[in-house]
Specification:
The chain is of the alpha+beta class. Helix content is about 35%, strand content about 20%. It is globular.
Length: about 120
């Protein structure tokens, strides 16, 4: 996913993102939190952006942060390409991928018992 995301950025005249090990646990937690939910959501039970609270709780700083969530029905060899294409076709997800001020990203994934894959990308500068 990181290679595909960076290929999209470079083909749009942007610098590639660096892997962000500090937020990897958050990306993984966000992906796992979406398993079994009827719809993907960026919000917690209080209506706040969940990833923002996780970043604050981990004392991870940023001036701008964002999150992309995606779900795929099967995790085969083409899943990352399919997910990246779907994200790039969505205006709000594309905006995160191509945000000039983002310099780092962590990408987490989780799979449920039926093989459904959820991916979370956490971006920051």
């Amino acid at each position: 996913m990181l290679d595909l995301t960076n290929a999209d950025r470079v083909s749009n005249g942007l610098d590639p993102l660096e892997f962000d090990p500090e937020t990897l646990t958050i990306a993984r937690a966000r992906a796992a939190s979406q398993l079994g939910t009827p719809a993907l959501t960026h919000y917690d039970a209080n209506g706040d952006l969940a990833f923002v609270h996780l970043l604050a709780d981990a004392h991870i700083g940023y001036a701008l942060a964002g999150e992309n969530l995606a779900r795929a029905g099967s995790a085969d060899a083409t899943v990352t390409g399919r997910v990246e294409q779907a994200l790039m076709k969505s205006p709000t997800h594309r905006r995160n991928i191509l945000e000039r001020t983002f310099t780092r990203v962590a990408i987490g994934s989780a799979t449920d018992g039926q093989g459904q894959l959820t991916i979370a990308e956490v971006y920051r500068n």
